[in-house]
Amino acid sequence: MTEQKLSDTQTGPGMDRAAEPAPSGPGGPAGPAVPGPEAIAALRPLGVDQVRLHPEGLLGGWRRRNAEDTLPHCVDNLRGSGNIGNLQAAAGEGEQPFTGMWFADSDVHKTLEAALWELGTSPGDASLEAFVEDTVALLARAQQADGYLNSYFTVAAPEERWRRPDWAHELYCAGHLIQAAVAGGRAGAQPVLLSVARRFADLLVERFGPDGVEEVCGHPEIETALAELYRLTGHRPYLDLARRFLDLRGHGLLGRGRFGPRYHQDHQPVREVREVAGHAVRQLYLLAGMVDVAVETGDLPLLDAAERLWVDAFHTRTYVTGAHGSRHRDEAYGDPYELPPDRAYAETCAAIASFQWNWRLLLATGRARYADEMERAVYNAVAAAVSADGRRFFYSNPLHLRTGHAGSGEEEAARRLPWYSCACCPPNIARLMASLPGYLATADEGGLQVHLYGEATLTAAVAGRPVRLEMRTDYPWQGRVELTVGGEAGQSGPWTLALRVPSWCEAYSVSVGEETVRAPAADGYVRLTRVWTPGTTVVLDLDMPVRQVSAHPRVDAVRGCVTLARGPLVYCLEQADLPPGVVLEDVRLAPAAPITAAHRDDLPGAPVVLSARGVLADAHDPLYTSGASRERTNTPLTLTAVPYFLWGNRTEGPMRVWIPLATTG
Amino acid sequence: MTEQKLSDTQTGPGMDRAAEPAPSGPGGPAGPAVPGPEAIAALRPLGVDQVRLHPEGLLGGWRRRNAEDTLPHCVDNLRGSGNIGNLQAAAGEGEQPFTGMWFADSDVHKTLEAALWELGTSPGDASLEAFVEDTVALLARAQQADGYLNSYFTVAAPEERWRRPDWAHELYCAGHLIQAAVAGGRAGAQPVLLSVARRFADLLVERFGPDGVEEVCGHPEIETALAELYRLTGHRPYLDLARRFLDLRGHGLLGRGRFGPRYHQDHQPVREVREVAGHAVRQLYLLAGMVDVAVETGDLPLLDAAERLWVDAFHTRTYVTGAHGSRHRDEAYGDPYELPPDRAYAETCAAIASFQWNWRLLLATGRARYADEMERAVYNAVAAAVSADGRRFFYSNPLHLRTGHAGSGEEEAARRLPWYSCACCPPNIARLMASLPGYLATADEGGLQVHLYGEATLTAAVAGRPVRLEMRTDYPWQGRVELTVGGEAGQSGPWTLALRVPSWCEAYSVSVGEETVRAPAADGYVRLTRVWTPGTTVVLDLDMPVRQVSAHPRVDAVRGCVTLARGPLVYCLEQADLPPGVVLEDVRLAPAAPITAAHRDDLPGAPVVLSARGVLADAHDPLYTSGASRERTNTPLTLTAVPYFLWGNRTEGPMRVWIPLATTG
C-alpha cells in the first residue's frame, strides 16, 4: 500500500472517487489519508458503499432499474452485438470477424465499470458477478504480451496499431478499461482487472511518456483515467502521463483532416483556450481530465482554465436540461447562445461527461454551482435518455421533436432505441446510474455536505467517528427533506451539516428538531454547526412553485418562449396530452394564467404534472407575410406538462420544452 | 435535323431552353415547331441571344461581372486545382495523379457550360473561346473508346467504374457534360462537344436503358440533362432513359448505408412522395428532371407530383432569401418549418437548383408563383453567394452569422472563399449568371411575358413578326419599369404583353403611352392586349415601400423577429454598421418607428439602404432565469440595413436577416 494515496482532508486529492478508494473491499471504510503536498481539494467523496439509495425515491428507483434492467440489457447486447466475440477473437478463442465500431471494446469496459459499481453497493447478483468474472478473465486473455489490449487493432487491423491517433480511439478505449479497473479497485477487489489495466498503462507510459512519442488521442478519456489510476495506485508516472497528454494539446498534433483541430480541442493549448469547442463529449472528457490533473499536481492555472471554460459552457452553451452540444454536424458545440431546441444534438454521453466534470469541480472547490449543474443534468438530460423500462435509450436528446419529424437515423431518432451501432451511450448511463450513490454527499474536516436529495442512508466518518444520516424525502416531487442524525454523531464534537439550497429555489425554511432556525444560505449551502444529538431531525423545506424559465435574450432559438419547471425538473408538452388534430407548434401558453402542479395517477413515474392555460395560434398564414406578425390565437385549451425525463414513454410523437407565450388575447 | 424537336407554341416543349434551340448559331432565330403530341407547355423560352441585359442594371451588371471576373476566375482555378490535369491524365497526356474530389470533372463541365452561354450572348472573348476550344478537344481525347468519360474512374479507380451508384457521381458528371453540350447546341455550334456528349449518352442508354441494369445515380442531374439532350436532338431513347431513372427511384436501389434512402430521395417512388427530403441539391435537381420528363411525355401525374412537392418546399421549408436546406448534417432539408437562420445550410447550388426547377414549372404552367420564387432566389440566396468582385463565393449562405462564430470550415465560412475543395458552387453560379438573359421573358402564341425586370432589350417573334422590347428601369432599386415596343410590333395584329406583378407588390399603376390604364393583375400578371404601335411606351410602376416581413408562426427559430425587405430584396444588419462594441444579438427593432429607404453613396453596389430605429437589449442576464422574460432595452440607436446579397463585402463580421422586435419601450 505504499503507493496508495488517499485523503480525507480538505486539501487532499479527492477527484472522482465516486467511491472513496476501498482497498478492503466493497462497503469497506475509506482508507488512510496521505495527501500529496501540492494537491487541491475542498471536499472528499464518500464511497458508493457509504450511501444507500432507497428504491422508493426517484434516484434510488433509477439505481434499482439500472441494476435490474439496464445493466442486464447492456450485458445481453454486448454479447448479441459481437463486442464479447471481438475480445474472444483477440484472445484467439473464436473465429468471429471483428464486428461493430472499432472502439467497441469501450462498451465492454463501461458495462464492466457499471457492474463493478453496482456490485460494490449491492453485492449478490450472481448473473452480474458471473459477467464480471468472465469478462475480466477474457480481458486478461485478450491482452497481448506487451500489455496492449484492443480487439480491433489485434484482430482486424494489427498493422494500424498506434498509426491513427486522430481516429483510432486506442487511448480512449484504454481509458475506459482503466476506469473499470479503478471502479473495481474502489468498489470491490479486482486484482486481476487492476493488473490488466496497469500492464496496459505501463505500456502507455513507455510509449507515450517523457521519452516516448509526442502523440495524443483524438478522443479524450485517457487523461482522467490515468489520473484516477494514479489516485488508486499512487504510481506517479500515470499522473505525469495524463499531464503530458494535456500539455501536448494545441500544438498541431490532431485534426489535419476535414474535421480540423477545433473538433479535437487541439486548436490551442489547454491553459490558453477560452471557449469550449468542437466535439462536445471529447471537450467535456478533456475538461474532466484537466481538473483531475490540476488538483493532483496543484496546478492552479490549469484549474482556472477549466473553471473559465465552465463559465463559457454554462453561460452561453448549455441547454436548460443540462445537455451540451447544439450541432448534429460534428456532434459539436455551437457558437455562443446557439441553442436550437429542435436540432439540439445533446448527446447523452455529453450530459454524463458534464456531470462528471462538474463533480470534479465541486470536489476541488466546494462551489454550489457545480452541484446545481449536476442536479440539472441528472434529472433532465441524463434521465431522459433512458426509457421508463430501462431498456431503451436516446443518443441525441432534443428539446423539441417537431410535428412532421422524419428522423429515422440513430442520431435523430423519434423514439428511444434498444441499442445503437455506436453504443457509447447506454453503458455510459449504466455506469453513472450504478455509481449514483457516490454523488449525493461529501465530507470535509468540518463535517458533511449534502448536494443531492433523495431517500437514502449515509454513513461517514466525522472527526473519526461514524456518523449516520437518514434522509427521508419525496424529492424532487416535493421540496421537504428530513435528515435524521445518528450513529456516533454526538461524539464527534461540533460539526457542520451543510445542505445545498439549489439555485432554482427562492425561499425555504429550516428546522432543527422542533425549532425553526434562521439559516441564511451562504454560497449555496445552509450550514448548521453544533454538537449533534443522535436522533435530531433537520427539516429543509424548499419552496417548489412552478416556474416559468426564460432564456438569455441572445438565445434566438427560443425567443418569446418559456420553459416550465418545478424544483430541479424541466417539464415539456407532449402530443399525447393534446386534443386530436392539434399541431404542437400551434400551442401557445397564456402568459398571465396560473400554472398549477397536480397529482396524476395514470402516468407511471410522474406523480406531479403541471396544468396550464393555453390557446391555439392560427396556422393559416403563408410562410412569409408582409407586416409585423400579428399572431391570431383562438381556441383555448388546457395544457398538461409532464417531466421532460419521461417524454416519449407513451406514444411516439411531437414534444417541446420551450413553449411560446401567446402574444395576443 | 429530322430529330430536332422545337416549339414556339403554347403546348410545345419548352423546358429549360434558357436559350431556344438555335441550330444556326448564337443569336440565331428559334427553330421550327414540331411539338410532340403529348407535350405540356404554357410558355416558350427565348434564346439567350434574344435578350440583351445591359450592364448598367443590376442583373446586367451581374452578368458582366460574371463574364469579366467569375468565369476567368473559374477557368484559372480549374487549371490550378488540377481539374484540367485530371482530364489530361485521362487522355493519357500527363502524369498528374488524380487530384480533388472524384466528381471534379463536373466543375469543368459546368464552367464549360457557362462559357458557352456567355459566348452565345457576347461572342468575341478570345481567352474564353480558347478555353472552350481547348476543353472540348480535351474532353474528346479523354473520352474512352466506348464513350465513357470520367477522369476519376479512368485514372484513379478504373476497377470501380459503375460499381458504386450511391456515391460515384458518374451519372451526375455525365449529366453536367450533357448540359454543357446542350448549351453549346443552343448558344452556338459545338458539334464536337455534342458528339462527345451523345456518345456518352448512347453508352448510358445501352447500359441503363430498357435492356440494361436497374441502377440510378445517388446524385440526380442526369435526368434533366437527358431530357434536355432529347429536346436538342429529338432522340427519344434519351428521354426514355430519363424517365426510367425517375421510375426506378423509391425501390430500394440507393441509401443502404448510413445516409439512408431519404438522403438520396429513394425512400418512395417519385409520384408518391409528398415531402421534399434529404440532400437539398439532389432533391431539387431531381425535381427539375421530374418536370422535364413530365412535360415531354405529357405525364400530368408526374407534373402534379412536382407541384405538390413545390407546395411542401415553398410553404414549409424555404428561407426568406429563397435558400433551401436547413441542415448542415447531410446538407439536407429539415422538418417542416425548421428554418434556423444561423445554421441555415442554404447551399448556393440548392438556390440555383431551385431557380432552375421554378423556371421549368413556370414554362410548364405559366403560374406567377414560380417566377416569384425565381426572383426571390436570384436577388438574394444566389446573389449573396458571390462577392462584389465576383471572385469569392459562399458555399453555405446563412441568414445569421453569430457574434463569436468560429467557423473555419468551408461549409461554415465567415467570409467568401476564392475556391473550395468541393467546388460545385462557383461554376454553378457562373452558368446561371451567364444564362441569365434567357430567364427574363417568354413567349406564347398570344404574345410576350416579362417575368424579371432589368435594363434589357428583347427581341422575339410574335405572330411570326419580329417584335422588340426596350426595357428601361432602375429595378430593383426603384419599381418603375418602362417598356417600349418596337420592331414589327404593329404588323403582328393584336397581341398581349404580360407583365408580372410580383407577389411582394401590393399596389402599382400602369400607363400605356400617355394614358393611365386600369389593369388588374390576373394570376400575377397585368395583361395588355392591343395592336401595338411601335414606339409605344408602357410604364409599370410598382410601389416599393419598405416591408417588415414575418414568418409563419410555426417557424420557431425567428419568433418575434421581422425581416426588412424592399422590392425583391431582403435586407440585413451587419456589424459594420453598428457602433463599436455593440453585439448584434442585442439589437432590437423599434416596432412602431418608420423605416425609410435612403440613398447611400459610400456602399458600392447598394444605392438604397434602409434606416430604422433600434434599441439595445440588456445582455446581463444569466443563461436561464425564473420568470417570463421581461427584456429590458435601453440605448436607442439608428440601424442601417443593407441588401443581403451584399453582406460580407466590407469587414468580416456578424450579420442577421431576422431582427428581433423590441418587446418593451
From TrEMBL, chains A, B:
Arranged from A to Z, the UniProt key words for this protein are:
Hydrolase
InterPro entries noted in UniProt: 6-hairpin_glycosidase_sf, Beta-AFase-like, Beta-AFase-like_GH127_C, Beta-AFase-like_GH127_cat, Beta-AFase-like_GH127_middle
UniProt keyword Hydrolase present: yes
Q: Where is the composition biased (Polar residues)?
A: 1-12
Q: What are the Non-reducing end beta-L-arabinofuranosidase-like GH127 C-terminal domain coordinates in residue numbering?
A: 546-660
Q: Which PANTHER family match?
A: DUF1680 DOMAIN PROTEIN (AFU_ORTHOLOGUE AFUA_1G08910) (PTHR43465)
Instruction: List the protein's name.
Output: Glycoside hydrolase family 127 protein
